[in-house]
Amino acid sequence: MSVSDMFVALQGVLTADQDIREEIRKVVQALEQTAREILTLLQGVHQGAGFQDIPKKCQKAREHFGTVRTQLESLKTKFPADQYYRFHEHWRFVLQRLVFLAAFVVYLESETLVTREAVAEILGIEADRERGFHLDIEDYLSGVLTLASELARLAVNSVTAGDYSRPLRISTFINELDSGFRLLNLKNDSLRKRYDGLKYDVKKIEEVVYDLSIRGLNKEATVGVGGEK
């Protein structure tokens, strides 16, 4: 084979690879648009009237996840099944965003932390990497850390809306989350940096709870937790 033939063959490989990446990019763009729609919907809970509409917003969000599942099903067909991590960077960010959105919906519904397996089910993908297109553990953890920041914001807006019990419940949840992350030996630099931000979320929520205590509103909040919310 001549040098020219060698480079023609190499160009063929490069072109095929570029075609795959372009097909992936198109699907990822659609996923990003759907994620923006879900985020816009859920952002309504931060407004005063939004607290009364949480069940309805969560229901609508879950309907949007039907579109996400269809789009991820399409994404799976765009590259060889055994090359997940070769192309992972293309969808890593949007998948982390979708994990956050799924975790936010589950928290708003039940005030619990969604498992990785449950997120994978919501997204219509696998939790086990051996079974194909899956939810990477680090992507799951990144999405959960984004949830912590969102809940810190929700704690502040809850007070503004006159809901004084919610910040206490959020504080308990975030502290449990922080304790969980402390059990991990994080090697991923990006993930470790994001985890460093969790302490600021903890501090922000503690300040909200402390302010409620100073203003004497924590007593009203405690009654709300024990009785009607």
UniProtKB/TrEMBL annotation:
Record localization: Cytoplasm; Nucleus
InterPro entries associated with the record: Translin (IPR033956), Translin_C (IPR016069), Translin_fam (IPR002848), Translin_N (IPR016068), Translin_sf (IPR036081)
Alphabetized UniProt keyword annotations: Cytoplasm, DNA-binding, Endonuclease, Hydrolase, Magnesium, Metal-binding, Nuclease, Nucleus, RNA-binding
CDD domains: Translin
Record bears the keyword Cytoplasm: yes
GO molecular function terms attached to this record: endonuclease activity; hydrolase activity; metal ion binding; RNA binding; sequence-specific DNA binding; single-stranded DNA binding
GO biological process terms held by the UniProt record: RNA metabolic process
Pfam families associated with the record: Translin
Chain residues that bind Mg(2+): 150
GO cellular component, one term: nucleus
Subunit structure, interactors included: Ring-shaped heterooctamer of six TSN and two TSNAX subunits, DNA/RNA binding occurs inside the ring.
Similarity-based family: Belongs to the translin family.
Job description of the protein: Exhibits both single-stranded and double-stranded endoribonuclease activity. May act as an activator of RNA-induced silencing complex (RISC) by facilitating endonucleolytic cleavage of the siRNA passenger strand.
Protein name per the record: Translin
Source species of the chain: Podargus strigoides (Tawny frogmouth)
Gene: Tsn
